[in-house]
Amino acid sequence: EDQVTQSPEALRxxxxxxxxxxxxxxxxxxxxxxxxxxxxxxxxxxLFTLYSAGEEKEKERLKATLTKxxxxxxxxxxxxxxxxxxxxxVQARTGFQKLVFGTGTRLLVSP
Amino acid sequence: xxxxxxxPRYQVTQFGxxxxxxxxxxxxxxxxxxxxQKSSQAPKLLFHYYDKDFNNEADTPDNFQSRRPNTSxxxxxxxxxxxxxxxxxxxxxxTDLAGGKPDTQYFxxxxxxxxx
Lengths: 111, 116
Prior knowledge:
heterodimer; A: mainly beta; five-stranded antiparallel β-sheet; 0% helix; 59% strand; B: mainly beta
């Protein structure tokens, strides 16, 4: 069964304090791994798609990386507006393109 | 801007009173999804439409139904809401890419359902 585990569950950072969020996955052939940002009371906002081990993608202070077993979301010099829940999801190569989500990491960045 | 729109953003209903949630999209995507998300939990897929073909998840209760009258619109009907159905309901869309490429889903803002 395809599975996604995210850690830590919650992370508190000071503004400017860089860190990484982890997404470990097991999937029967990876079609794609996705990172989303979700603000309270809103729908997930798409950030990145990765599908090849060694791939990296960047957007402002965020960089996502992928290995065969896990993905990291690196946050460099975070600002309070980066506070949100970050969701990781995988899509298997076989069957329908269903997303299997992790439960997310709640990030709080204090000024 | 192309987007996924959900109405209403907040819906209050009474126990057992049918309710319909709406989703529309301007992305012209052929696949539309409905998810249920409870507090601090991952989104849970209820069903999806691939074009006009309806696909139900095995563990989705019969209380939940869906309609897709055209490419742009999709509705979620909850026939007899229970207290356990209070949640955020998310609509998402995607387009089926050939060649086994990842199929990104784009989400709407969600509808928060309260059951009294």
